[in-house]
Amino acid sequence: MKLISTILLTCQLLTFHGQLEALFDIKKFRQGDQHFVETYLYIFGPSLLQHKDTNVKNKKVEILLFIENEQREIVDYKKHVIEGEIDDINKNGILDLQRFSLEDGDYHLSLKLVDQIDTNNIEEYQQSFSLSKPKSVEFSDIELLDKYWKSDSVSKLNKSGIEMIPLVTTYFGPEFTRLSYYNEIYFNDEIRKENSSVILTQSIIVEENRKIAGQYNKLKKISTSAVVPVLNSFDLSNLPTGNYVLKLSVMDKNQLILNTKELSFQRTNLNNSMKLNRLNSVSIANTFASILPQDSLNEFMKCLAPLASNLEKNIIDNKVNEIDDTLKRQFIYSFWYNRFPNDPAYNWSKYKNEVKKTNQLFGTKVRKGYETDRGRIYLKYGPPNTITDRPNEPSAYPYQIWHYYKIGRFNNKRFIFYLPDLVSNDYVILHSTLQGEYFNNNWKTDLHSRNTPERNVDALQNPNDNQWGSNSNLFFINP
Length: 479
Fold this sequence. Notes:
alpha+beta
């Protein structure tokens, strides 16, 4: 989420200092004449460092958040430490919600995160925003939801009798099947006298042409109470890949729009047209797929595996020898059209050239380059910014550290590959700091198991860190 304005403060990836990474979001609501601002913070668990003492089983982070008025006076602040077990934090991350009650005015928010295991691992974020008197019809910000349920409990997560877990992102990847959200509409006394009810429209529109995306449109008659809560969700199963806008509007009885609220989001849907029974309807006439050489179709499908979704991988791994050539061409075309509808041919051609590079750089006598771990990472994320190559370090297997300054919305990600067989060119992924990739607490021990074959599963740190010539930890932290 990149756009930030005084109307809607959306989620941003925090500025990089150490390796600590988080997403931060601000939403504004009202309670009578009072504003309240909610802050949503999600910290990626693996980006918090682990204590060198293996007896320390927890990770913890200090959160300092304060708000200043236009005179730079602190009007409110929160300072606390969150701590949890390593495995739980690595898997689930940390979600923190805070609520501030504020008057009309201009404000400046500052956030600082300090890893308590290593206080040099920090993140800082600052944002200015304004709060003003409401219009006759006013929307709160749209809060995207990860989960929600009815509840009578009193907590920061509860609004209008609904317990809500915020979703701190506007990217809906293939793993998402629904878009759920909460919003409030505020009507002043004048509007309430003129209209006992109004029409609320809720739509998903295509950002490019501002048209409603298929059937993603709902109309509902609502009363003009002082506060009207809105809880809704859309099924995203059939929403194609693209950029969209969630749009809420209120109209009076004369169909005059009284106010509108919008939220942009991205959708990647790789499963919508990848079922074999649906591929038959895909037209490939006059496309790049119609002229692909017949004897290369299997290879062209297999080389897509580094980018493929689980459903696509299932077809590539298990169906490639069972389907006919037409279905293979339809699969390849759909694969690229789903990702790049504006120019699938160009992006296929560009990717094919990258596959050739990986085959030359990482191929072995028994595996194509794109089938290796380094080839997969190269094709999925592009070439790294730096490579540290250590083929002859004492006590360690040959290894390489790949450092990416930026991967998607993530900063400062590293991969370490090693060569346990010592002779081939097939380096195996040993550990990565990128969410979703292979995470190995024992990577140092495994890397040096050449000289320390008896592995202790409780020894998360390398026993040879202080041995002469051992630089893997230094290079991994500062590649």
